[in-house]
Design goal:
alpha/beta; Spore Coat Polysaccharide Biosynthesis Protein SpsA, Chain A; 2 domains; five-stranded mixed beta barrel; four-stranded mixed β-sheet; globular
């Protein structure tokens, strides 16, 4: 199997710790290593380094080279962020250039997996399905709560069993629901969280891109003769000037009539999408009042709060409830922890006000 690790995200929901030149995938937000390293280690037993490619932003190329200096993986730097469809198209074309015709898996660099064995087995089975026919396979996460922050995948209810794993045909992709709808989804047993993980043959990906995002296909295919040449960086930059900013979900998955299959998995997945998700993932580290404390902090009568002190300052808190505090050397965030998804709005405001030194 060929693996593409998609590491081009900006991590704005983890401001002020995550910044433009060091977004969350390059931070040890959860685990002992930066998230991109954790992702690599997670799948390293599945294939050789020569079959692993990381696609990231040009601002992070040198950092990635340092992190993976002892690994013979491929690293491609996008000149501009253009969402997941261009990244997936570029990865598929590069895998094809390297002579890979079998299954290729596209994995975000900033996810957390609690049970790696189940996750890898799920990828292996998905690879078998993707190799056996012209189709796209995605991993569906078995929901454990009525979640409103994720998109959902609805199955048709008819399963095929492969190596002990059930595989379903996808009926439709559903946008993020409200809480009442999410509760209905949870009870129906026919909906799974959309993990954003895709498995298919390179030829299938490129055919789908050609059909549904022709402008992207034309720009990407113009690169096929320039990989590993001195002209590649220039040609990639020129191509990306013409490439639309579009997600693979919206551009292909929600439109295609090609067979799409979902393999439900209970691997302890999280997209680590906000400070609140970190708070839940680190439940075992919370004190008796459900506070998660990092750094030099004293709290009196605080409950259900997350205080992250990385700014080399002592923090004292009294009577807090459901509060998020993230302190860094040059910026401090104080928020209702239930609104941690809205942290990205701060970054938007900083851009509008020209305070780029804080981004």
């Amino acid at each position: 199997m060929f693996i593409v690790i998609m590491a081009g995200g900006s991590g704005t929901r983890f401001w002020p710790l995550s910044r433009k030149y060091k977004p969350k995938q390059f931070l040890n937000i959860i685990g002992n290593d930066p998230m991109i390293i954790e992702t690599y280690k997670r799948i390293s037993s599945l294939t050789d380094d020569k079959n692993i490619c990381i696609i990231l932003g040009k601002e992070h190329f040198e950092e990635a080279k340092k992190l993976f200096c002892k690994n013979a993986i491929h690293i491609i730097a996008e000149p501009y962020g253009r969402n997941t469809a261009p990244c997936i198209a570029l990865g598929a074309l590069y895998a094809s250039y390297l002579g890979h015709k079998g299954a290729i898996a596209f994995l975000p660099a900033d996810h957390y997996i609690a049970n790696n064995e189940i996750f890898l087995n799920s990828l292996r089975v998905a690879g078998k399905v993707a190799t056996s026919s012209k189709c796209i396979v995605t991993l569906g996460i078995v929901p454990i709560r009525p979640e409103t922050g994720y998109g959902y995948i609805k199955i048709d209810g008819i399963s095929t069993k492969i190596d002990g794993y059930k595989v379903y045909k996808v009926q439709e992709f559903v946008e993020k629901p409200d809480i009442d709808t999410a509760q209905i989804y949870l009870q129906s047993k026919k909906y799974y969280w959309n993990s954003g993980i895709f498995i298919a043959r390179p030829s299938t990906i490129l055919e789908e891109i050609k059909r549904y995002i022709p402008k992207l296909y034309k720009a990407i295919m113009g690169l096929k003769d320039y990989f590993n040449t001195k002209q590649f960086e220039f040609m990639l930059r020129e191509a990306y000037k013409e490439i639309p900013n579009i997600s693979f979900d919206y551009g292909v998955m929600e439109k295609t009539d090609t067979d799409i299959y979902v393999l439900p998995t209970e691997c302890g997945w999280s997209d680590v999408g906000s400070w609140l998700s970190i708070y839940y993932l680190r439940k075992k580290e919370q004190d008796i009042n459900s506070n998660l404390i990092d750094g030099d902090v004293i709290n009196i009568d605080c409950k259900n709060s997350f205080i992250n002190a990385r700014g080399n300052r002592f923090i004292a808190c009294i009577g807090l409830n459901r509060l998020l505090i993230v302190d860094t050397p040059d910026a401090l965030l104080v928020a209702d922890i239930n609104r941690s998804q809205d942290v990205r709005n701060i970054v938007d405001l900083l851009k509008k006000r020209g305070k780029t030194e804080y981004i």
